[in-house]
Amino acid sequence: MKFSTVIFDFDLTLADSSKPILTCFETALAEFGYPPKPKDEIFATIGLDLSDGLRVLSGEKNEEIIEKMRKRYVEVADEVMVKGTEFYDGSLGLLRALRNKGVKYGIVSSKFRYRVKGSFELYDCMELLPDVIIGRDDVLIPKPDITGIMTAIDRLGADTQSTLYVGDSYIDAMTAKNASVPFAAVLTGSTTREMFSEYDCVAVCESIKELADIIINNL
Fold it and tell me: Is 83 helix (H, G, I), strand (E, B) or coil?
């Protein structure tokens, strides 16, 4: 299968943001009186909408409290998220290869758009900034709703069958399935290979570096 466009998730797909995400969740939970949660339970919520993640971890049903926790998370994230996020080995090399081949690519993420852009600024690689970035602040409904990915495809002048979506989470896999977009998975998040077997994946790789050759060979 040949692709003319590639769209990526960001957190735990192109970049490791696990440390700052952990800090943000731990701070929000602790300051509102909830007991600490194991790291694996926190990481399992990455890919969910932030408010949903806080509901899962806290068990809180009061939406006013959830919103206060969400705002506190965002405040902490403003301090630690960008500087604590590191691109995975092979991520920037893959983006550079796509750019050199003239292949359009984008990012559709549950992260705010300005945070994604901030990582490219921090790493001084603005020349690799995606042709389109759709963040949580750009859509009313989060993934697995297809609004974000379909908006990106439209702005890239692409179509669903010639676009590959790359992600680390079952949420990403569901998004691709809902949009009828081919999907490739990396195992750098909390979703296992077995869980991805429930979806039609072009490939399931240990890392973005391993997946890079498959992507390049299918352009």
Answer: coil
